[in-house]
Each structure stands twice: as structure tokens, then as C-alpha cells.
Amino acid sequence: MERLTEYDVVAIPCDRIYYDGSFNCRGEFTLQSVEALANSINDIGRLLCPLWLQPAADVAGMPAGYDFRLIAGHRRYRAVTVYLKWATVPATIFAGLTDRQARLLNFTENLERKDLNPLEEALAIQQLYSGGLPSSAVISTELKRDQTWVLKRLRVLKMPPEVQQLVASRRVTLLDLQIVARKETPEEQINVAESLAASKRGRGRNAVFVGEKLSRSFRRRRNKSEINALVARCLNLGIDLSGNRVAGWCAGSISDDELEADISRELGTKRPV
Known about the structure:
There is one protein chain. By secondary structure, this protein is an alpha/beta fold. The chain has helices spanning 35-44, 74-83, 99-113, 118-128, 136-143, 147-157, 161-168, 177-180, 186-199, 224-237, 243-251, 256-269; strands at residues 10-13, 17-18, 51-55, 68-72, 88-93, 208-209, 212-213. The strands form 2 sheets. The chain has a 5-stranded mixed beta sheet with strand order 1-5-3-4-2. Helix 3 packs antiparallel against helix 4.
């Protein structure tokens, strides 16, 4: 068997690792929130996943006295240092990364663990592209996520803070935001989001409030003028979308966002003549 040395795990003294909570896409967290993790690590007797570190020489402006910056595993690091008092910790070293590459690794590692809420994912995208958000197609390619997944997170960033917190607590879903986004003012968006959240504690998802039935946009069949407008748009753009996808949109089983993702994807792959 071939040994893949680039994946070697080494024991690193904990006090030589620079911990920067603001670098983590999850943001800061309380020590109490990692106590259960520390107990689990203690019961197992080891870390199932090593920390990911970056050599200090690759990090501009890092404080003196450290050999590495922590890229991924912030909760695990706090668990073993604060609660378990480990002197060393298993880690994999990633050398030669730019700051942006390191942040992308942090984000993708957290995504693979599947315990980020939608607001954390949206804010992580914003942090990763702090110089300005590129197109959803570019983000989709870099994060290796479907373009619809990206569009839904970008929608979260456009919501008022009150709505974002409802999304973070999962009282309002990303699907619910299709309804919220129809409202023009932040006040209206907050009211609709709060009503949606309240409805789930009682009468269920299809609640009626303020005289308005919350029908989902993807349940509405498109009328003839909308379909004709889509056909004309595709002809003008010189693209030919899958018949099944267009039929699904016409029937209401595919949302506007999903169809826009298809159009963007088609434009991105179309080769000039």
C-alpha cells in the first residue's frame, strides 16, 4: 500500500496553535456549548477527526509565539484544551495556502459536518467573498454545491436581521423565504416571517393570517403570458433548456429560483460560436 504523506497526522503542542475565533465561519461560541463534545471525546479517548492547521509562515500578521494557525476544528480545540487539558492534539498541516484558500477549507469542512444552520452558511459565504459577492454560478463551482443551494443562502443575506434569526433557529425555512421575499418592505417581511413561525406551533404550514392564504410560489401554475415570456427570453439568449424542466416550471413543481439557476448554468456552459 502506498503511504499518502500529505495526509499525515502529527501531534502538535496545543500552546503552539493560534486560535482565532473570528476566522471560523461558525463565528464565536460559548464554552458551555462544547462541554458535551468534550465529554464525548473523553469517553472515546481520542479525536475521531484531527484538527487542520496552517504554518505560521503562511499567515500574514499572525501574533508571535505560535507555530500554526487553526483552520478547522475550533470546537474540538476548545474542548480538548479547556475541558480535557490535553498538552498535544492530533493535526494535519496544510502548507502553502493563501488566506482565502484557508477560509474556503474552513467553510467546506464545516459544511461536510452538516451542523451549520442556514444563516451560518449564508454569513460564511459573505465572509468568504468579503471583497464582493461573485455570481451564484461562481460560488456554486467553488463550494461544489448546487446553484439553487447558493441562491437560497444569498436570499437569507437580503432578509432583515429579525427574519435571519428565525431562519437560524429553523422556525422559518429556506422554502418559507420564497413567501417572505414577495413582500417589499422589511416590516412586511418580518410580519410574514413571524406569522409563518407562529403557524408551525399550531395550525401547521398552510395557515391563513391577515386575510392572506400562504400558497407556495412553486405550487402555482404559470399562465400563458408567463410561459410565452419565458420562451421568448430563452430564444433571445440563444439557449435551449430541458423540456422536462420547463414543463415542471409551467406546472408549478419547479420554482422561479430553480429555473433561474438552470438558465444561469446554461449560459455559463454555452460556448461562443
